[in-house]
Amino acid sequence: MLVKINTCLDLKAIFSNNRHQNTLILTILPNPTNMNEITSTLNDFLITTKSSAALILNGKGKLITSLNIDYGDSVAAMSAAILSMSEKFLIDLDKGALKQLFLKTSEGVVIGNKISGSNFIIAFSKDGSNLGLLMRSTEEAAIELSKNSLLK
């Protein structure tokens, strides 16, 4: 059964009954318009920066959306572990909150940027020569994405 829940996010939900355990399961479905805006912003980011792939995840490692990534769920979970450890590292050293993370590999660069709360955007680029532009563009994309009600 699909019902609409009146919230400021205009979310939809699916109620399902698990008869074996006598429980009611509520699954919140994101507003398609908000998800389209997120995907569109991410796609524009890829085109502008010539990045090879990108994803958005929450702090628990759940994939929100991705473009050009195989096994996005696994990459999101691994990224969340790296981000969580980096945040704890900075807190332990009293160096402030994590805003952006940069990883350089033999095949390119990875930039992680906090969107809001515990949501992050992760960008992958094979070309590290435009690193400053990529880091700035990732930050700008994060600011734009933070305006979306699903990522606040």
How would you characterize this protein structure?
With 152 residues, the chain is of the alpha+beta class. It folds into two domains: 1-30, no CATH class; 32-151, Beta-Lactamase (2-Layer Sandwich). It is 36% helix and 32% strand. It has three helices and eight strands. It has helices at residues 32-49, 72-92, 131-145, and strands spanning 2-4, 12-18, 23-29, 53-57, 63-67, 100-105, 108-116, 119-125. The strands form two sheets. It has a five-stranded antiparallel β-sheet, with helices on both faces. It has a three-stranded antiparallel β-sheet with strand order 1-2-3, with no helix packed on it. A hairpin with a 2-residue loop joins strand 7 (108-116) and strand 8 (119-125). Helix 1 (32-49) packs antiparallel against helix 3. The radius of gyration is 17 Å and the shape is globular.
Please name the defining characteristics of this protein:
single chain, 152 residues, alpha+beta, Beta-Lactamase, 2 domains, five-stranded antiparallel β-sheet, 3 helices, 36% helix, disordered N terminus
What is the strand tally? 8
Pattern of helices and strands: EEEHEEHEEEH
Distance between the termini: 28 Å
The percentage helix is: 25-40%
Number of self-contained structural domains: 2
Roughly what is the average pLDDT, rounded to an integer?
83
Q: What structural category arises from helix and sheet content?
A: alpha+beta
The description of the largest β-sheet is: 5 strands, antiparallel
Query: How would the global form be characterised?
Result: globular
CATH fold-level assignment of the largest domain: Beta-Lactamase
Radius of gyration: 17 Å
Classified by CATH, the class of the largest domain is: Alpha Beta
Instruction: Output the CATH homologous superfamily of the largest domain.
Output: Dynein light chain 2a, cytoplasmic
Helix count from the secondary structure assignment: 3
- The CATH architecture of the largest domain would be 2-Layer Sandwich
